[in-house]
TrEMBL record:
The chain crosses the membrane at residues 41-66, 86-103, 115-138, 158-177, 198-221, 241-259, 309-328, 369-389, 414-434. GO terms for biological process: carbohydrate derivative transport; phosphoenolpyruvate-dependent sugar phosphotransferase system. This is Permease IIC component. The phosphoenolpyruvate-dependent sugar phosphotransferase system (PTS), a major carbohydrate active -transport system, catalyzes the phosphorylation of incoming sugar substrates concomitant with their translocation across the cell membrane. It is found in: Cell membrane. It comes from the Bacteria.
Length: 451
């Protein structure tokens, strides 16, 4: 009888006019060639992000339990090397994948060439001079190096640049390649691979010249480059906000929204929030160390506050989505992704969920992913301000599992994990309707493709 009622309520939810209209809009948006190409590109490099999560997990949990001192430093080279080949070159990976996917979805006959052009154009837009830190006898110094590429620009911070360049370069390249006057034909006796290369030679020359001119103008007249331009336009307008609850929620809302577009949320939160909340964390730890009392702890929003109430299980607090899928979803593929994501999600690593479910470029899932961290932050802030839970006074590793983290960070306040559990359960029911919409959208899109 209970199952019949649950099935009935589920049917009513799926057949409601809101969900029907939302599904129609989501299907139209999801079928847009540029958005579809972005999803396809990220699907190709999904294994890269899963392996990156494995490296981070081993470096920050398993290795720290087993090794110490110099031995730990040497062993952690393993995880650092994985990061260098994955997250630290994410921008370089995404640009050619977008070029290939967009060219293929547009029916272009040489998607490999489009992929190469996207990567070439992204490198053209990279800064020619980079600043590196050096350690000398007089202390740390900064040196400007010519002819190098930094992981900072090529990694997650450069992903937005990779997306923009990948889309623009491929679109322009396909357009130029469509003009017969720009195609060079060497005759039928030439091998196809050689003939294909020469047929796109002039379009490639024009394309890279356009990007080189833009790079020269940015450098010569504005003393900047694409990566710094993005940082200036996206990050600097938010720099006036500090760690009050309004600014905090705005910054994390924007950061999580960017993550739904494939741009890691640390591009915003890492620059604008992490130093500030760490300062607050240190102030709390100092006050607690001197008094061993919670009467004069100054700050509510700290580094541990973020991991306890804002990003539970990673960006978007996706641990709630994993639970919702495992309990309520009947879609095999969704349950497989959730099962795969559960173990890393317990340690707050959720790239498999974000890129595998996916949440990136998934319109229905973008809504709870962006809103839920703000809801959790407000609840955590209100409960802490009211004195229902202690303020965080211990800096715990960000990979500390849920329930354990808030208990340790509040120096053993049992109410903190109870509050976090309440937020997680609330998130399950917040994610649930959007999860069902997303699965319905995927079903409709599959039926349209197979028709």
């Amino acid at each position: 009888m209970s199952e019949d009622k649950n099935q009935s309520s589920s049917d009513k939810l799926e057949n409601s006019s809101f969900i029907t209209k939302f599904t129609e809009v989501s299907v139209k948006v999801g079928n847009w060639v540029y958005l579809r190409s972005l999803r396809d590109a990220f699907a190709v490099i999904l294994p890269v992000f899963i392996i990156a999560g494995l490296g981070v997990l081993l470096n920050n949990t398993v290795f720290t339990w087993i090794f110490h001192g110099d031995t730990l430093t040497k062993v952690q080279v393993f995880g650092n090397a994985i990061s260098n080949g994955t997250l630290n070159v994410a921008g370089l990976l995404v640009a050619p994948m977008i070029g290939y996917a967009l060219a293929k979805n547009k029916g272009f006959n040489d998607p490999i060439a489009a992929s190469a052009m996207s990567l070439a154009c992204l490198l053209i837009m990279m800064p020619g001079n980079i600043s590196l830190g050096t350690v000398a006898s007089g202390g740390a110094k900064m040196a400007t190096v010519t002819g190098g590429i930094s992981y900072l620009n090529a990694g997650t911070q450069g992903m937005f640049g990779g997306i923009i360049v990948g889309l623009l370069a491929t679109g322009i390249f396909i357009k130029l390649s469509g003009y017969k006057s720009l195609q060079i034909h060497l005759g039928d006796n030439v091998p196809p691979a050689v003939s294909s290369s020469f047929s796109v030679l002039l379009p490639a020359l024009i394309l890279m010249s356009i990007f080189a001119i833009v790079a020269a103008l940015l450098s010569g007249f504005f003393n900047t480059d694409l990566i710094n331009l993005i940082k200036t336009w996206i990050q600097e307008p938010l720099r006036g906000f500090n760690t009050n609850i309004v600014g905090f929620c705005v910054i994390y809302t924007v950061a999580n929204f960017l993550f739904t577009l494939g741009i890691h949320q640390t591009v915003i939160s890492g620059t604008l929030m992490d130093p500030l909340v760490l300062i607050n964390m240190n102030a709390n730890m100092t006050a607690y160390a001197h008094s061993h009392s919670f009467a004069h702890i100054p700050n509510i929003i700290t580094t541990s506050f973020v991991s306890s109430y804002t990003l539970i299980g990673g960006s978007g607090s996706t641990i709630s989505l994993i639970i919702a899928i495992l309990i309520f979803s009947k879609v095999k593929s969704s349950r497989q992704v959730a099962s795969l994501s559960l173990a890393p999600g317990i340690f707050n690593i959720n790239e498999p969920m974000i890129f595998g479910y996916p949440i990136v470029f998934n319109l229905p899932m973008m809504i709870p992913f962006v809103l839920f961290p703000t809801i959790g932050s407000i609840i955590g802030y209100a409960a802490t301000a009211a004195g229902w839970v202690r303020r965080t006074v211990i800096l715990v590793p960000w990979t500390t599992p849920p329930l354990i983290g808030p208990y340790l960070s509040t120096a053993g306040d049992w109410r903190a994990p109870v509050l976090q559990l309440f937020i997680i359960i609330l998130g399950v029911f917040l994610y649930l309707p959007f999860m069902r919409i997303s699965e319905r959208v995927a079903k409709v899109q599959a039926e349209q493709q197979n028709a």
